[in-house]
Design a protein that fits this description.
It comes from Ruegeria alba. With about 170 residues, this protein is an all-alpha fold. It is built from 6 helices and no strands.
């Protein structure tokens, strides 16, 4: 894939595209199989004397198409199940991360206002944006941020964010 296109794509896009392609292949292959099955049945009814080789060839092609159709349906089902597991895992990870965040906040003894500010910092908002959202002065948010960093034992926003990134990246074993 070209590098200029990567930023435009979400992580699940490749699986979604693959599922759509498989679904279209199933439809096209089913139509082809129906055509060959219909042709064999029409030849049998008409009693065409093209020879048994012709019927066996078309019948064989129809059988191969039907077998391929079964394989494609199985693959699509497996892909959809995998996508569902990944989505479920992401939801669980989000829930677990919320528990981890709340655990840190409780350990640090953050006030409710500091918890709000800390969550907004984790979401990537700057002090001015946090002040606007909370309806407070920017100086108040700066003071609350400094208190949060002191309670967390870090020197600033980057180290604060890295605490949570480490939790995401830590190997559970």
């Amino acid at each position: 894939m070209t590098t200029w296109l990567r930023p435009l794509m979400r992580p699940g896009d490749a699986d979604e595209r693959r599922a759509a392609i498989l679904a279209w292949m199933i439809v096209l292959q089913a139509l082809c199989a129906l055509f060959f099955i219909g042709d064999v049945l029409a030849d049998l009814r008409a009693g065409d004397n093209d020879g048994p080789t012709h019927l066996w060839l078309e019948g064989g092609v129809a059988l191969v198409l039907c077998t391929g159709l079964g394989v494609l349906i199985y693959e699509l089902r497996q892909l959809l199940l995998r996508m569902e597991r990944v989505t479920t895992g992401l939801r669980a990870a989000r829930g677990e991360m919320a528990v981890v965040i709340e655990g840190f906040f409780a350990d640090w003894g953050l006030t409710p206002a500091e918890r709000d500010v800390a969550l907004m910092i984790l979401k990537g908002l700057d002090n001015d944006s946090i002040a606007t959202v909370r309806g407070r002065a920017a100086g108040t948010v700066r003071a609350q941020s400094a208190a949060i960093y002191a309670k967390a034992g870090v020197d600033g926003r980057t180290q604060f964010l890295s605490l949570f990134m480490e939790e995401l990246l830590v190997d559970p074993e």
